[in-house]
């Protein structure tokens, strides 16, 4: 399988066609350490190893250069909370009802990760690991769902879905006093169960805490989840990082500064592993929790369609790299689909940790695949269900199915030929539709409905949506479409101006641009066929 490569990967080894280490299984360290570095809302094309040009990420790129870049790395969901719930259990969150971003409810023990599901901390504790979470938790704000009550030995971070970055903004000392998501963004940081006064820019705090955890547990097998909330909003950065990007402006500049700070922290952590001679004993994963919300934070998902929250590739296909020096090949590219669920599957197998047979993992041990010992696909399919928007996707091989519950015609895309999901080929491959629909029905039969109302159901969120709708309606009533179409302001809209506007509109909305349809629409409006639309022609036709 050959997929389009991004950036400078052409000189790297592509895994999948032949074993890297031959027929013999490489010698693996006993109970390797595991470090997972997860960003929040990072765009697919916003790291150097995926071709980013305007935001240098030399330290993040070290992971790919010293290991394997996975071009088809997926998360368990396309928004933060459910994605992290899937990762932290190794199971699709739809199996246990975690399919919405939880509300920040410190009095509700059921608003978050169900107690019967086992986390990395609980699973690895059985075989002697020390486990820590640094950064964003987002698995429930009730004390019973605090990381230290879910199997972890160390926590330095915040309980909610996001946070202010500047210490002077953090005015609420006790995280359990915050009553909603907005207030949770302004709490002090928790060190285990203690409220810690803010000291400096939050991303730097988290990087320092991660390095501290490794230093403290250098003689133990350990698991560290470095769970950055950057570059999730609010978009905030210090001058130290903003000054690195004088040619950028607006959201993109601040976003770049936030990513650059993360990259510095990744460098600190990798250097600490080197200093302690732990690099060859430590498996390191880097990924984002979902795709970038491009219009909100200035991120870039590259050729992928859509972004955070979508079932398109831009929603849950993310930057994904894994390093294990001495075990994995260096500078390799792996094209077959892998999942964030595989991280639990990998460490459980390597460490010999027992798993509850009543709750089998959805992830697999990736090492045999990444070393070329196993040339099969790690997964029969990659799945996504979005309960509230009533959408499913199933990817098997190069083909991806989009379907909706209300009987709309399914869509089919060949990602090898059409990574941007622009050409619906469902009518050409009815047999593929049947195969993928059969897989979808079987998977769906194993799932349950969401167990709690999500952030979108809170009064605050509904009020926000109401304000947005009102603003949109007001804007629509005042918006001058002709003026928007007439780029050179000469009082006429040419065919080129018309096509350019519609192409840009489709790109902004993540929709398919149909040029032939757009040309026909222009011809209908062009009453005298002079290849120019006047304001009268546009408004007369629109009224009809």
TrEMBL record:
InterPro entries per the UniProt record, alphabetical: Alkaline_phosphatase_core_sf, EF-hand-dom_pair, EF_Hand_1_Ca_BS, EF_hand_dom, Sulfatase, Sulfatase_CS, Sulfatase_N
Record bears the keyword Signal: yes
Enzyme Commission number(s) from the entry: 3.1.6.1
Top-level taxon: Bacteria
Domain EF-hand stretches: 482-508
GO MF entry, a single one: calcium ion binding
UniProt entry keywords in alphabetical sequence: Calcium, Hydrolase, Metal-binding, Signal
Signal peptide: 1-22
Region (Disordered): 289-310
Family note: Belongs to the sulfatase family.
Name of the protein in question: Arylsulfatase
Species annotation: Novipirellula herctigrandis
Protein encoded by which gene: atsA_98
